[in-house]
Structures are given as C-alpha cells and as structure tokens.
C-alpha cells in the first residue's frame, strides 16, 4: 500500500506540475496577446491625422486671432511717443473690429491738448485723430486742468 500511495502521490505531483506549466504558458500567451493588441492600437492611432485643437473651431478664438493680427505694437508706440508730460493718459478703449481707439487724457491747457492731437496725427498710422470732447476744471491742487477725449483710427500700411 505504501508503494501504491507513493505512486499515486507521484502522479498527483506530476499533474500539479503540468497544471502549473500550463497556467504559466497561458499567462504568457495572454500577455503577448495584450501587447500585440496594444501595438496594433498604437499603429492605428499613428496612422490617423492628429485631431484639430478644440479652440480652432471656437468663434472666440478666431475673433481673438484677428485682433492679435492687428498692428498693436506700432499703434501703441505711436501713442507712447506722442504722450509726453504735461499730457497724461487716463483711459484707453479700443474697438479692434473698426480699428478705433478712444483716449481719455488730461492736460494743463486746451493748447497742450491740441499739441497732443497734432503729435498723434504726425504718426502715419494715427493720422485720423480728432477731439471728441473737452472740459476745463481745476485739479485737486486748484491748478487749471483740461480733461479731454479723442478718437483715432489706426491705418495699416502695406
């Protein structure tokens, strides 16, 4: 009986080892299959054209891109060049769709305000500058002060 028990136990150990080898082979085959599927998916995705960014279809993006294409630097430099003391800018509004700028400023006199307009008009890109309104009032220290608004339209040169 002892011999029969040992033979039976040997057969069971052999079956157990066979099952372990089959299980390892199945696990390895599954891993290879997963890797092959992942590689196929990578190749399929590589052949697709890259997706367009979502912002390309956005109206706001197209509008902003048009505004960024405008000659902001040359316009701002022209305003900066013309704005010298005693002129002080206190407001700046732009309408990129029409190319209009509205500047609010202060000067010690109306003559200084007119000189500022002439200086802006000297720039080829801001030649269409005109005063919209003005008001004489004293500043907080009691000195005379002219507050004025002007409008200009920048012109792009080819």
Written description of the protein model:
The structure is a single chain. This protein is an alpha+beta fold and 158 residues long. Helices cover 50% and strands 22% of the residues. It has four helices and four strands; from the N terminus they run H-H-H-E-E-H-E-E. Strands 1-2-4-3 form a four-stranded antiparallel beta sheet. A hairpin with a 4-residue loop joins strand 1 (88-95) and strand 2 (100-107). Helix 3 (72-82) runs antiparallel to helix 4 (110-121). The chain starts with a helix and ends in a 5-residue tail after the last strand. The mean pLDDT is 87.
What's the layout of helices and strands?
Elements: H1 2-47, H2 59-68, H3 72-82, E1 88-95, E2 100-107, H4 110-121, E3 130-138, E4 144-153
Antiparallel strand pairs: 1-2, 2-4, 3-4
Key features?
four-stranded antiparallel β-sheet; about 160 residues; alpha+beta; about 50% helix
In short:
The chain is α+β, with helices and mostly antiparallel strands.
Biggest sheet strand line-up: 1-2-4-3
Name the beta content range. 15-25%
Radius of gyration: 40 Å
Q: Choose one word for the global shape.
A: rod-shaped
Helix-strand pattern = HHHEEHEE
What is the number of strand segments?
4
The helix fraction, in percent, is 40-55%
By oligomeric state, this entry counts as: single chain
Largest sheet: 4 strands, antiparallel
Given as residue ranges, the uncertain stretches (5+ residues, pLDDT < 50) are none
Give the count of helical stretches.
Answer: 4
How far is the first residue's CA from the last residue's CA? 108 Å
- Which secondary-structure class do the elements indicate? alpha+beta
Mean pLDDT: 87
């Amino acid at each position: 009986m002892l011999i029969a028990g040992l033979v039976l136990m040997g057969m069971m150990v052999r079956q157990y080892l066979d099952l372990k080898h089959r299980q390892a082979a199945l696990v390895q085959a599954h891993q290879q299959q997963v890797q092959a599927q992942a590689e196929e998916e990578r190749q399929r995705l590589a052949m697709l054209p890259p997706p367009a960014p979502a912002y390309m279809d956005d109206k706001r993006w197209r509008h902003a891109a048009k505004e960024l294409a405008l000659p902001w630097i040359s316009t701002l430099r022209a305003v900066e060049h013309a704005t010298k003391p005693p002129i002080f800018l206190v407001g700046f509004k732009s309408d990129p769709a029409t190319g209009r700028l509205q500047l609010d400023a202060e000067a010690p006199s109306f003559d200084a305000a007119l000189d500022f307009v002439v200086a802006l008009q000297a720039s080829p890109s801001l030649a269409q500058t005109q005063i919209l309104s003005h008001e004489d009032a004293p500043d907080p220290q009691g000195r005379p002060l002219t507050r004025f608004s002007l409008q200009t339209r920048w012109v792009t040169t080819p």
